[in-house]
């Protein structure tokens, strides 16, 4: 802004005006450029202070993740032959056949994959499961048992929860939870080796979910079947889910305590360690290493822990395909395992998802984890 020089109009007896001063506003006039400039400066200072407050912790956290990705994994941190993969609905609705299964069996031969989470739902919002959704389930189960001895087929049952929108499943309703338990019985009657629940978005501390797990596990134990769940990520900082819920309305993380409460109620817990918002491969790998350590600390050794691998390629908010690679995830898993519990027996990785996987994904899994 150009400054106005008022010295020529001032009386000689008056003190010389500051050449940088702005003219004062006359009574009844709007504030002049001086007050406006002051306000602008104040807004700039406040904006810079807010950015500083937000960016410094963020940069510190990202630097910590980069450091967490450094170092070498311990010897022996490879597959324990307890890995899993999520499979799409085409395997049970009639789109897949014997030739597809034979090709898939060749694909996973000599890997550590021993559990298939086959999409069999989704369940209705009331917890029921239409039988028409999985007409070829019996074929798949029999074919896998015949062609892939030792591999289990679990029914992947999911639904959207009404936690962040008015539509979805409401676990606070006892009738809904009872219907989910009946759906678990329903798929076990078909011959599935287990039930895999994926209910999202599931907020940390949900007591109704814990009650549901207790009831479903009573059924799976009675049938000598598996109960597994897809789990949200763990707070990277204490209480982070509460902070993010306030800021974004989507508290996607679980507290480590709640993660442990879930882990103690199931046979298998698979962490969805993708969609992390990390922009670089090294930061993503460091994040997975951190998540692996946190999950190992919270999971009892009697529960089978799996860390998710991103076998899909999308570019959107929360997931960058160039950063969230299988190679980075595997290295992160090995680093976290090395630092926390290198000899954990009930441990593996779980790939999401078969129909989006590339040859590079499979190669990275084999070379990095299977060896």
TrEMBL record:
It holds the Pfam family Glyco_hydro_18. InterPro entries: GH (IPR017853), Glyco_hydro18_cat (IPR001223). The chain crosses the membrane at residues 46-65. Residues 1-10 have a biased composition (Basic and acidic residues). One of its GO terms (molecular function) is hydrolase activity. Gene3D superfamilies: Glycosidases. Keywords: Hydrolase, Membrane, Transmembrane, Transmembrane helix. Residues 12-27 have a biased composition (Low complexity). Residues 1-39 are annotated as: Disordered. Residues 172-313 form the GH18 domain. This is Glycoside hydrolase family 18 protein.
């Amino acid at each position: 802004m150009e400054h106005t020089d008022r010295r020529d109009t001032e009386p000689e007896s008056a003190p010389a005006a500051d050449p940088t001063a702005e003219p004062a506003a006359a009574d009844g006039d709007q504030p002049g450029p001086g007050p406006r400039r002051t306000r602008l400066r104040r807004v700039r200072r406040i904006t810079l202070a807010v950015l500083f407050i937000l960016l410094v912790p963020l940069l510190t956290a990202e630097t910590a993740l980069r450091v967490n990705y450094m170092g070498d994994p311990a010897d022996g941190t490879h597959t324990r032959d307890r890995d899993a993969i999520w499979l799409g609905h085409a395997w049970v609705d009639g789109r897949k056949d014997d030739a597809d299964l034979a090709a898939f069996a060749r694909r996973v031969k000599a890997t550590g994959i021993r559990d298939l989470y086959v999409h069999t739902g989704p369940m209705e919002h009331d917890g029921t499961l239409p039988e028409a959704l999985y007409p070829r389930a019996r074929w798949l189960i029999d074919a896998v048992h015949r062609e892939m001895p030792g591999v289990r087929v679990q029914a992947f049952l999911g639904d959207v929860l009404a936690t962040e929108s008015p539509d979805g499943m409401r676990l606070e309703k006892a009738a809904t939870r009872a219907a989910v338990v009946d759906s678990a019985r329903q798929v076990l009657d078909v011959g599935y080796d287990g039930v895999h629940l994926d209910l999202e978005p599931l907020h940390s501390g949900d007591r109704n979910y814990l009650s549901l797990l207790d009831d479903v596990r009573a059924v799976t134990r009675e049938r000598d079947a598996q109960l597994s769940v897809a789990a949200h990520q763990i707070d990277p900082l204490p209480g982070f889910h509460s902070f993010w819920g306030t800021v974004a309305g989507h508290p996607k993380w679980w507290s480590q305590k709640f993660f442990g409460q879930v882990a103690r109620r199931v046979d298998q817990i698979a962490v969805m360690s993708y969609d992390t918002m990390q922009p670089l491969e090294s930061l993503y790998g460091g994040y997975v290493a951190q998540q692996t350590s946190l999950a190992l600390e919270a999971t009892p050794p009697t529960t089978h822990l799996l860390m998710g691998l991103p076998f899909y390629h999308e570019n959107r908010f929360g997931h960058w395909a160039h950063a969230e690679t299988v190679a980075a995830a595997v290295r992160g898993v090995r680093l976290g395992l090395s630092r926390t519990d290198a000899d954990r027996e009930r441990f593996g990785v779980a790939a999401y998802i078969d129909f989006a996987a590339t040859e590079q994904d499979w190669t990275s899994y084999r070379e990095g984890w299977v060896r």
